[in-house]
Amino acid sequence: MRVLGIESTAHTIGVGIAQNREPHILANEKDKYEPEKGGIHPRDASRHHAEKIGSIISRALKKANLKIDDIDAVAVALGPGMGPCLRVGATAARAISSYFGKPLIPVNHAIAHIEIGNLLSGFSDPLVVYISGGNTSIIAYKQKRYRVFGETQDIALGNLIDTFAREAGLAPPYVVNGRHVVELCAERSKEKKLLDLPYIVKGQDVSYGGLLTSSLKMIGKEDLGDVCYSLVEISYSMITEVAERGLAHTRKKEVILTGGVSASKVLTEKLEKMSALHGAKFFSVPPAFAGDNGAMIAWTGLLEYVHGIIIDPSMAYISQRWRVEEVEVVWKE
Question: Which residues are in the Gcp-like domain (predicted)?
Answer without folding.
Answer: 28-299
